[in-house]
């Protein structure tokens, strides 16, 4: 054994000596050729790096729809029940006065359901936010708020409590700043930019209060403008459609689990990612439509920007840094003001002239559809005509309106029209349900007076022709009705706003058509510049500044001074013998239910109550007396004693004599003047106050309906 071990050891030593000799030779050769070794190693490393970069680039070039990460593959392989649900549905809250926001809520709910989501429409008055709103933080529902702004920037009646609670909660330490954290929402406000200082106030406030309680926006706040001139899309309906399209796209993205592209750390109300996106698209020459759609909505407020700025800097500022911080704040404020001015010019046309932007039509497609359903025959882009129910009544011999009783106007020959559907008030008693546009000045396209009158007469005659052969229609009155003798400019809106109103009046008189113009006492200068009319009416709906504001809901901030000036302008015309002063007192005439007003049949006074009120007023006006009444219309005429000659009232009008006088006035270039006493006619006994007929023409037959149906037409 010992001999064997010695032999093996000797062999191993010889082998190790040989291996070392070989290794030593190889290392020596490598050292002598080390430059070539280093170069080869560098080449190999470079090739490895290049190949890896090429593979990475190829992977990035694969379309998003074809690229799946491992977690996504596993997610796809999971059963449907195990997939994460990000959005269950949408709860739509609405605050509405006239029904527009309510209609939008229902429309949005239908689209949400069609997209495969749950939807629930909620009247804000039926929802208790104190008990239920916090549940939205974990409900996986998106909350949408469609809220209108009512008088003086206040919420609508059905949204008052909800908004009051939300405002108080946003500043109540007991709720805390994170009370609604986890709740996702979107807001769309409805308003009218003509109400300067109150435009879309409620929508902005709801958005601000929710944000203050840490609720998360899923998209920017939308704003709908009833003022078609400044509306970003031409009407409040079009504004909503644009916002709704964007919301539905965002809803689908949220349902797929996509997070908001914005990091949430943007300052001064502008999104960094959005700016980058816009810069990228500008390089790619985007279409104007796409570019404008990105600018339709803005969500950040000044208070948010300030709060976010504070979060960035922290709550403690070193005194040495105070100067630089103040400089930054001042610079940011100045920049924000410049951006805001630019935005107003870009979106609302505030700084644009008529040359820069063509004026829009007053009648939008949605408004045209709504008015057409109500029986209007629309003319051009801002006028309309409609058949009065008293015209239909007198054609059948069932009596005329109060104008027939007071002034001798033949109702079946009277055309009710307007050259301006727009008005400067939104009266609570408006019998047109606020479907007409509003404005404080003319900013729309304008049609010539000749076109308006021509088409108004043609449409009126066509509506009269529809009564040919109708049972009860008197043949002689049907033929007379085809010849228009009177024009009541009291259909809807404010006719005196039409810039060519004087031309329109002259055309009426040239065709021997009398003029009956009604104005809402908000345009005193227009009253002063008005040419003579057969009858000029100035509506006095309230006796104090506060009550006028509540009842007429005027757009003008100086509405009270305008009201007083309008009465003064009327007095000037009376003094110049260009008008006569008579007062008509109406009770409220019920014209059916309306979401635009809370007035009901309970608000209609009895005729005797109206009589009692007017008698009390007459006792305080020694020069005035009740002259006529029309019981059917709850209406009385208070006239000056100068219209009472030898104990008899002369309130009717000699229309042929008026046409002679107005022709002489025009021929004289306006130097010849005349007064109402120059074309009066004797009032028939049945029309005088106290007569047993109570204002009903005995040549007609009183018709009493057993089952009254809603009829919102009339004048």
Please give the count of helices: 23
**Classification by helices and strands:** alpha/beta
Rg over CA atoms, rounded to whole Å, is 39 Å
Mean residue pLDDT: 80
Overall body shape: elongated
Helix content: 40-55%
Distance between the termini: 138 Å
Main pleated-sheet profile: 6 strands, parallel
Compute the number of strand runs: 19
Unreliable sequence segments: 64-78, 261-322, 339-357, 708-715
- Tell me the fraction of residues in β-strands, as a range: 5-15%
Walk me through this protein's architecture:
The protein is of the alpha/beta class and 715 residues long. Helix content is 42%, strand content 12%. The protein has 23 helices and 19 strands. The strands form five sheets. Strands 1, 2, 3, 4, 5 and 6 form a six-stranded parallel β-sheet that branches. A six-stranded mixed β-sheet has the order 7-8-9-10-11-12, sandwiched between helices. α4 (100-114) packs parallel to α8 and α16 packs across α18. The protein is elongated, with a radius of gyration of 39 Å. Residues 64-78, 261-322, 339-357 and 708-715 have low confidence and may be disordered.
What layout of secondary structure does this protein have?
Elements: H1 2-32, H2 34-61, H3 70-77, E1 89-95, H4 100-114, E2 118-123, H5 129-132, E3 141-148, H6 160-171, E4 184-191, H7 201-212, E5 216-217, E6 222-225, H8 236-255, H9 272-283, H10 288-293, H11 302-313, H12 322-348, H13 365-373, E7 377-379, E8 383-386, H14 389-395, H15 402-407, E9 414-418, H16 449-465, H17 475-481, E10 486-489, H18 501-510, E11 514-519, H19 524-528, E12 535-538, H20 545-552, H21 559-575, E13 582-586, H22 607-619, E14 624-630, E15 635-640, E16 644-645, E17 648-649, E18 652-653, H23 655-667, E19 680-681
Parallel strand pairs: 1-2, 1-3, 3-4, 4-5, 4-6, 9-10, 10-11, 11-12
Antiparallel strand pairs: 7-8, 8-9, 13-15, 14-15, 16-17, 18-19
Helix pairs in contact: 4-8, 6-7, 16-18
């Amino acid at each position: 054994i010992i001999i064997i071990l010695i032999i093996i050891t000797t062999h191993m030593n010889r082998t190790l000596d040989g291996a070392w000799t070989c290794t030593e030779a190889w290392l020596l050769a490598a050292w002598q050729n080390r430059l070539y070794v280093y170069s080869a190693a560098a080449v190999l490393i470079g090739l490895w790096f290049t190949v890896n970069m090429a593979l990475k680039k190829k992977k990035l070039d694969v379309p998003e729809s074809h690229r799946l990460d491992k977690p996504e593959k596993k997610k796809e392989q999971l059963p449907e029940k195990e997939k994460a649900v990000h959005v269950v549905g949408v709860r739509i809250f609405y605050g509405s006065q006239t029904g527009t926001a309510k209609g939008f809520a229902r429309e949005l709910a239908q689209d949400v359901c069609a997209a495969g989501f749950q939807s629930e429409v909620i009247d804000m008055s039926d929802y208790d936010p104190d008990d239920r709103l916090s549940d939205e933080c974990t409900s996986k529902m998106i909350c949408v708020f469609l809220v209108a702004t009512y008088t003086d920037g206040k919420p609508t009646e059905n949204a008052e409590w909800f908004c009051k609670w939300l405002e108080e909660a946003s500043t109540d330490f007991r709720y805390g700043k994170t009370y609604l954290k986890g709740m996702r929402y979107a807001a769309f406000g409805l308003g009218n930019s003509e109400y300067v200082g109150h435009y879309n106030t409620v929508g902005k406030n709801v958005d601000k209060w929710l944000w203050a309680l840490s609720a998360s926006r899923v998209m920017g706040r939308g704003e709908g403008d009833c003022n078609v001139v400044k509306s970003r899309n031409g009407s409040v309906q079009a504004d909503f459609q644009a916002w709704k399209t964007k919301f539905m796209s965002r809803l689908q993205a949220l349902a797929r689990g996509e997070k908001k592209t914005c990091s949430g750390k943007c300052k001064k109300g502008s999104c960094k990612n959005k700016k980058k996106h816009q810069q990228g698209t500008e390089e790619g020459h985007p279409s104007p439509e796409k570019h404008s759609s990105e600018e339709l909505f803005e969500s950040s407020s000044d208070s948010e920007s300030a709060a976010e700025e504070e979060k960035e800097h922290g709550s403690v500022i070193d005194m040495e840094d105070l100067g630089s911080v103040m400089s930054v704040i001042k610079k940011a404020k100045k920049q924000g003001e410049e951006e805001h001015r630019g935005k107003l010019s870009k979106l609302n046309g505030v700084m644009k002239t008529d040359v820069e932007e063509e004026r829009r039509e007053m009648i939008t497609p949605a408004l045209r559809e709504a008015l057409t359903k109500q029986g209007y025959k629309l003319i051009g882009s801002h006028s309309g005509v409609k058949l009065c129910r008293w015209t239909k009544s007198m054609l059948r011999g069932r009596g005329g309106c109060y104008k027939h009783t007071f002034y001798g106007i033949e109702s079946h020959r009277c055309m009710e029209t307007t050259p301006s559907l727009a008005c400067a008030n939104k009266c609570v008693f408006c019998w047109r349900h606020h479907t007409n546009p509003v404005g404080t000045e003319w900013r729309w396209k304008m049609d010539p007076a000749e076109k308006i009158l021509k088409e108004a007469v043609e449409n009126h005659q066509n509506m009269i022709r529809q009564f040919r052969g109708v049972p009860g229609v008197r043949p002689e009155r049907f033929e007379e009705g085809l010849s228009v003798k009177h024009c009541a400019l009291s259909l809807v809106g404010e006719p005196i706003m039409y810039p060519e109103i004087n031309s329109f009046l002259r055309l009426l008189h040239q065709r021997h058509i009398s003029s009956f113009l009604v104005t809402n006492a908000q345009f005193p200068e227009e009253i002063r510049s008005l040419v003579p009319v057969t009858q000029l009416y100035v509506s006095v709906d309230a006796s104090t500044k506060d009550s006028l504001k509540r009842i007429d809901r005027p757009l003008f901030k100086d509405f009270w001074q305008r009201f007083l000036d309008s009465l003064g302008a009327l007095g000037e015309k009376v003094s110049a013998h260009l008008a006569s002063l008579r007062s008509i007192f109406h009770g409220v005439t019920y014209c059916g239910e309306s979401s635009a007003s809370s007035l009901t049949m309970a608000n209609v006074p009895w005729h005797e109550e109206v009589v009692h009120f007017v008698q009390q007023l007459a006792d305080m006006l020694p020069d005035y007396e009740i002259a006529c009444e029309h019981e059917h219309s709850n209406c009385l005429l208070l006239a000056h004693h100068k219209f009472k000659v030898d104990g008899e009232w002369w309130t009717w009008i000699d229309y042929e004599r008026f046409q002679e006088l107005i022709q002489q006035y025009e021929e004289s270039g306006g130097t010849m003047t005349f007064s109402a006493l120059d074309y009066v006619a004797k009032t028939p006994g049945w029309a005088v106050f106290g007569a047993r007929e109570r204002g009903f023409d005995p040549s007609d037959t009183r018709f009493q309906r057993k089952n009254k149906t809603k009829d919102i037409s009339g004048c």
